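Hi R.,

Here's the chain you asked about this morning:
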Amino acid sequence: MVLESARLQSLDVVVAAIKEETFPEIESCGYPVHWLGLGQLARLVRLFKETGVRKAIMAGQVKHAQIFSSSVPDLTMLKMLASLKQKNTDALIGGVARVLREEGIDLIDSTALLKPHMAPEGKLTRRGLNSRESADLEFGRPVAHKIALMDIGQTIVLRDRAVVAVEAMEGTDSVILRAGQLAGKRDLTVIKVSKPKQDMRFDVPVVGVATVQNMIQNGATALVIDAHRTLLMDREALVRLADQNDIAIAALPPLE
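And the predicted structure, written out as tokens:
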């Protein structure tokens, strides 16, 4: 989506693809693709400087758990990690952004090329929230907001005003799966929020068809997201699938 938007705007793009995460199909994007390991921060900087890059945008996902994988960090990455007081998402990616900035490369808003794909405020599906789902929302959204404030996770799953599962490093799909296992795969409400004062350069909430498929499989009937801060992957398809399965999706103004 980012590359298509760049193409429509005739922007020159260099792709730095992370070996541990990026799909090989990226090779067919029509732009130069350079593969590097997750820990190769010095190589990333060198690539950008050699190709004249002055602005960078993060697209796609790097799972937080990859930090603890077998990826070997280079000296630049090790120095950055050693400078951090904590290793939560904001601190880690903020550290990468700082290194890039020191080298004259600005990490910009990750949605800069994706504004049309951000969730608008309001009901996105034919069906709105019913009374049970609304009660879960009233109880659960402040909880999700506090968890996001502490940078633990951005998604919680509820049933009958009780928190069934909380996201940490595992990601939204895994937390929905776990909630389904715990609550018998029925009557679940999924709430996904942005962080207070969300840094739009990274870690922006994303939902897509896979999210709705996971909800169907695990008995979730409603999804509530933050308007203007949540990226909708293939909006038409995800709304169509939700409508076909009587799932409600609503986007509300972010809490601050």
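Helices lie at 2-8, 41-50, 75-82, 89-102, 131-149, 172-183, 209-217, 235-244.

Let me know if you need anything else.
M.
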